[in-house]
Amino acid sequence: MKAVTVILATVLVVAGTASFAYAGPGFGPGPMGGFARDPELMLEHMTDHLDLTPDQQAAIENIIEANRAEGQAIREQLKANRQAIRALDPADASYEAELNNIALSNGELATAGTLLAVRVKSEVKAVLTDEQIEKLQRGKERMKKRFQKRFDRS
């Protein structure tokens, strides 16, 4: 039973990590970066706050489109894994082995999601000017402080 608890805890941690891993380029509010599921909203936000030129907007749209399928595939597999975990029968003799396989898959997906997010962030950053990058960084710092204030009040 202890092994099942450890495996289940591992699955939950990895699944949570995978969810945060594909937070997209890291723009916006929300538990998953906010814009992870709506890259067009991220682009709109960046356009408004960073004064993107039409060329920059087009370049970022291309980056979003080029990476859309990979991100969607990761999210769909994570969803399938969550459904598979719910479908497992703890009384089944193969329960631990199946749970372990799903946990390993979630770990691989977390890695893939992290690498995708970093790649997209890097590609987007390459489109921005130094001033826009600085402004973006200041905005991230403000958001980080607000986030910390919320949890410091508890």
Unreliable segments of 5+ consecutive residues: 1-34
First-last Cα distance:
35 Å
The number of strands is 0
Q: Provide the number of structural domains.
A: 1
Provide the β-strand percentage band: under 5%
Radius of gyration: 19 Å
Main β-sheet description: none
Q: How many alpha or pi helices?
A: 5
Shape: elongated
Secondary structure category: mainly alpha
- The quaternary organization reads as single chain
Helix content: over 70%
Mean pLDDT: 80
SSE string, helices as H and strands as E: HHHHH
Describe this structure in words.
The protein is mostly helical and 154 residues long. The protein has one domain. The N terminus is likely disordered.
